[in-house]
Amino acid sequence: MTTLTKESGAPTSADAGAFLSVRDLRVQFRTEDGIVKAVDGLSFDLERGRTLGIVGESGSGKSVTNLTILGLHNPQFATIDGEIVLDGQELITARERELEKLRGNKMAMIFQDPLTALSPYYTVGRQLSEPFMKHKGASKKEARDRAIEMLTKVGIPQPKVRFDDYPHQFSGGMRQRAMIAMALMCDPDLLIADEPTTALDVTVQAQILDLLKDLQQEFGSAIVFITHDLGVISKMADDLLVMYAGRAVERGSVKEVLGAPRHPYTWGLLSSMPRLNSDIHQALTPIPGSPPSLLNPPSGCPFHPRCAFRSEVPGTLCTDSRPPLGEGRAAACHLTAEQKQSIFIDKIQPRLR
Fold first, then answer.
1. Is the terminal CB of the chain with fewer CB neighbours within 10 Å at N or C?
2. What are the boundaries of each domain within the chain?
């Protein structure tokens, strides 16, 4: 079982009203080079029927967070601290047998790469049917009927025929649809979508996103949607969490964060996006430098080595003090509210037009 450092009997701080509540989550991995702090004090809530988007560069802790929710880390290498409460049930301290009852049933995940997530040795139909028989006690015929129903819902042509096909007989878009069908077989209350449209062409991507929204309306699932694409997030999510170096640096509704961002890292992400109405010769504005090493993260604000506005904060506050992320609409930055507004209006907003 995953190593825990939470004190026995410590009171829970999870929001009792939230369907999924994550509090002060810390995930560390033991490596030959040292301890990797993959997630470092992350907190968020998610309500039923809503979608939380999580964005950030590779290595920011997005996928690690969601694999932790599902309990999929190797306990030999992972140390986990904090609280994850799903519909009143604590997951970090849950036994593997309890998690097995939840995975694929109450919570499910659409993995980033269906080619590795689907076994090449079994038919697509069998891989869809087995979790339904295990969790719902269904017969083989009932599971087959349910799988064909779900393949139909996700737009697989000739589902009765394709039920007996192997993954290599599906196109990339069809495999992704089959992964969605598998995740939704048992009507999960929580659906985690980890870059579900990666490597798909834009037409198929749009179809997949519309499909997820339609199915969410039908089943009322809460969705955690992980992506690098802010354009996709603007279409899919209700709320947005921006992660950097294993921490949340900005949080709010999608309209608030994308319409009036408050953190220099979010400004950088938005400024580096190409725009359809921009001059084709106009250079993008990338974020300087590289993400920090999680083996030896910088002191103070983790973004300060790459931040163009740290000189506007007096003294050594950025380098010495970690800015807190408050409740509700918040950004973990030492700039004052007036400075954030002024910088955004004068320097950032013109780039985004």
1. C
2. 261-352
Residue 10's identity, in one-letter code, is A
Angle at 139 between CA 133 and CA 145, to 5 degrees: 90
Place of tokens 């301890």: 35
Q: Residue 23 burial by CB count (10 A; 0-12/13-18/19+): exposed, middle or buried?
A: middle
pTM: 0.89
What distance in Å separates the CA atoms of residue 333 and residue 340, rounded to the nearest whole number? Answer: 9
pLDDT classification of 3: cutoffs 50, 70, 90: very low
C-alpha to C-alpha distance for 183 and 302, rounded to whole angstroms: 35
DSSP codes of every residue in 185-206: TT--SEEEEESTTTT--HHHHH
pLDDT at 204: 79
Q: What percent of the chain has pLDDT over 70?
A: 93
Over residues 106-127, the pLDDT tens digits come to 999 998 888 888 999 999 999 9
